[in-house]
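Model it.
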Amino acid sequence: MTKDIQVLRTPEYKAKLSKCIHCGMCLHACPTYAVFGTEMDAPRGRIALMRAAAEGRIGPEAVKDVFSRHVLLCLACRSCESACPSGVQYSSLLEMARSVVEYNRTQGALERLLRWIGTKKMMPNLKLLKLLARGIWVYEVIGLQRLVRSFDFLLPATLRAAEGILPPVQLRFTPLGQSASPQGERRGRVFFFTGCIQEAFLAQVNEATIRVLQRNGYEVYTPPGQTCCGAAHLHLGDFESAKRLARKNIDAFLSLDDQADAVICNAGGCGLALKEYPHVLSDDASYAHRAAEFSSKVKDVNEFLHDHLNVLPTGKVPVRATYSDSCHLRHGQKITNQPRDLLKKIPGLELKELQQPDRCCGSAGVYNIVQVDTANAVLDEKMEDIAGTGAEVIVTSSTGCQMQLIAGVRRAGLKAKVMHVVELLDLSYHAADGNQNHRDEA
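Modeled.
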């Protein structure tokens, strides 16, 4: 019996497990239950496995086999938490279960390599990510990507999935350590968290975020020294790396002489990770208080703009759009109406609601790369729902979702563009200024 299984046998963990009353309300909220239709691939079944481990009814061999298989198939989308009438802290239960799984399982050589390159070397190092983005830009503009995608069936599944989510890269990066001045009357000052993958591969979203905040009277400062939020590391059970990244971000933002009204994040998954730093660093006496101070300032851009939209968007953006919720924004941060309200303020934009707006797209951190078949099954269901709206624009509020949905559009053969909420607000502001190409941009 490994020491790590013991973390599931503490009174605290057992108390969290006991909140589950086996009512089954979580089943139909769970995307993997929809794919497999099996009890063990739903929250209630996974909790049953966790309880068996906590009570000593399964040991190390079962952890490496059945326990590991079903725990790793979870998307960690938290839709079950929204559906649960008993307040089960499923994400906390899953976090500890994954730590046990990661300790006991053996990763394949390719998975180890991709994890080492991606989460250990690239994501914490924005300079390396930008260098990679430049290489991918060349790969895309010279036509090599089209050739590779013509023969992508020859690639290993993980590499095929990683290549498939690449968006069209635009090499316009946000300068760190600089301020963007407000337009019109100054309303305040905010710090901007650029993210890592967002800044490297979806730089246009960060640009639009800054412009929209400026338009509403805010000075936007982008602190140097910031790094990856650590969300992907938490997804993979690499808690030590997540803690190191949390400390670095806290130092980068709280060490500044002049503080700001808020720390703005435009990615649902990143924002949730930043808001949960007090939990991540709860056992770190040196950082627990600072983590709480930092996280109290973090605001999702939709959340902030909803309360501080000082300049209404008046330019017409005549498109039919549908909004696809980020799971971590909807179920984790509990932000659902704010992005929709912002979109409804844009003249000419027709917002069509999905049949299942709360259903995951299959991105889930790096899930779409390490659990390819299941992620694609979840994505296909999502794209079918999206296709039913007839939307020209699919709107989201998270980096992983945006990249996954770009892949989904191509996979489903849809003629639609995937955009962030702030990009559409930005288009409306530009249209109001007299720019005539806003429909083509959308």
